[in-house]
């Protein structure tokens, strides 16, 4: 048996029972792939099922309110995926009468869909001869063929794409593409794979050269930036608080949060009091909720976060009840605070 035949046999014997595998409907495949781009399968399943319940078809998602979508998405992170998903749903309804295009060329033009997702939808939903390349596939190919080209640089991406295309079987394309991704997720795992039980062990170059743990190669880019967030959690006598919506193109666009004071480093109570007084007027009392910073780690930045409880008699017309505040789409950092604080 050749490489692709071994992958197909392994998949038939080991594939997981996942909710999006009961159909080849493009809407379901697209939804699952968008959710799993930077999410583990176990975490993604309940979100997928929740979205399918709320939006059974692309028409339902297109009609939805963005804030509702962001609230349902809360906890998955990378909220631009949810906004792009919503935009694409509306575009498909408006320009394709609710039917997903069937070719890679058309799919990759849609917002939020890159090479991998376009290839996955085209092959799984429409049987097109397209090779998928996600992190799992990169790992399998790099190890099996002993390829040390960086997978996140142009030369490496081009080489792996050509190799992946050359390995496509003439039949069973859907199962093969799902199989090689599954193989990477379960058998050829990132850490401590059980190579002794691998059906590819006899011809795996990385195993022969004893460098399984060194492949694939990925060049580290960029320096982690520290940002200091000070959230002002206002409370009044009517059980109200203040929320604001994040605007601009930075992190968490369009999500809600408590009023934020961002600083260059850890700040003092006096500095926070001065800021509150200048922006919001007189207050009754203010104290730091967490003496130890909550460090929220994102891909290129760490948010060193403190929450300040600000008691104020009257918060004015912009105040919202705490009950309403719980319904807002918020970053997971804010949601976790609300849960701890019994907000």
UniProtKB/TrEMBL annotation:
Q: Which SUPFAM superfamilies match?
A: DNA-glycosylase, Nudix
Annotated cofactor note:
Binds 1 [4Fe-4S] cluster.
Q: Which residues form the HhH-GPD domain?
A: 35-186
* Molecular-function GO term, any one: adenine/guanine mispair binding
Q: Which Pfam families does its entry note?
A: HHH, HhH-GPD, NUDIX_4
The cross-references to InterPro entries, in alphabetical order and at most eight, read: A/G_AdeGlyc_MutY, DNA_glycosylase, HhH-GPD_domain, HhH_base_excis_C, HhH_motif, MIG/MutY, MutY_C, NUDIX_hydrolase-like_dom_sf
Instruction: Provide the E.C. number(s) assigned to this enzyme.
Output: 3.2.2.31
Q: Which cofactor does it need?
A: [4Fe-4S] cluster
GO BP annotation list: base-excision repair; mismatch repair
The reaction(s) annotated as catalysed by this protein in its Swiss-Prot or TrEMBL entry are:
Hydrolyzes free adenine bases from 7,8-dihydro-8-oxoguanine:adenine mismatched double-stranded DNA, leaving an apurinic site
Keyword vocabulary terms for this entry: 4Fe-4S, DNA damage, DNA repair, Glycosidase, Hydrolase, Iron, Iron-sulfur, Metal-binding
Q: What does this protein do?
A: Adenine glycosylase active on G-A mispairs. MutY also corrects error-prone DNA synthesis past GO lesions which are due to the oxidatively damaged form of guanine: 7,8-dihydro-8-oxoguanine (8-oxo-dGTP).
User: Which family is annotated?
Assistant: Belongs to the Nth/MutY family.
Put simply, this protein is called Adenine DNA glycosylase
């Amino acid at each position: 048996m050749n490489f692709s035949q071994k992958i197909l046999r392994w998949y038939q014997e080991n594939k997981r029972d996942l909710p999006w595998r009961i159909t080849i409907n493009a809407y379901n495949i697209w939804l699952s792939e968008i959710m799993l781009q930077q999410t583990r399968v176990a975490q993604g399943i309940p979100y997928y099922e929740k979205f399918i319940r709320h939006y059974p078809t692309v028409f339902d998602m297109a009609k939805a309110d963005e804030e509702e979508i962001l609230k349902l998405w809360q906890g998955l992170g990378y909220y631009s995926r949810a906004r792009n998903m919503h935009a694409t749903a509306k575009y498909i309804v408006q320009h394709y009468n609710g039917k997903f295009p069937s070719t890679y060329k058309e799919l990759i033009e849609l917002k939020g869909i890159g090479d991998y997702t376009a290839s996955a939808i085209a092959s799984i939903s429409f049987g097109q001869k397209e090779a998928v390349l996600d992190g799992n596939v990169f790992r399998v190919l790099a190890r099996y063929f002993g390829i040390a080209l960086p997978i996140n640089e142009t030369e490496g991406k081009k080489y792996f794409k050509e190799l992946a295309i050359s390995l496509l079987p003439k039949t069973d394309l859907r199962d093969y593409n799902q199989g090689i991704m599954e193989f990477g997720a379960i058998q050829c795992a990132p850490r401590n794979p059980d190579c002794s039980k691998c059906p590819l062990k006899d011809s795996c170059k990385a195993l022969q050269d004893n460098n399984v743990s060194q492949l694939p190669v990925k060049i580290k880019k960029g320096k982690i930036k520290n940002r200091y967030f000070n959230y002002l959690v206002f409370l009044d006598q009517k059980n109200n608080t203040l929320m604001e919506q994040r605007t601009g193109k930075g992190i968490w666009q369009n999500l809600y949060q408590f009023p934020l004071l961002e600083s260059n480093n850890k700040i003092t109570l006096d500095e926070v009091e001065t800021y509150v007084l200048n922006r919001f007027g007189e207050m009754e009392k203010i104290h730091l909720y967490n003496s130890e910073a909550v460090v929220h780690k994102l891909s290129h930045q760490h948010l060193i976060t403190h929450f300040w409880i600000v008691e104020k008699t009257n918060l004015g017309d912009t105040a919202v009840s705490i009950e309403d505040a719980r319904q807002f789409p918020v970053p997971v950092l804010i949601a976790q605070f609300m849960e701890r604080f019994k907000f």
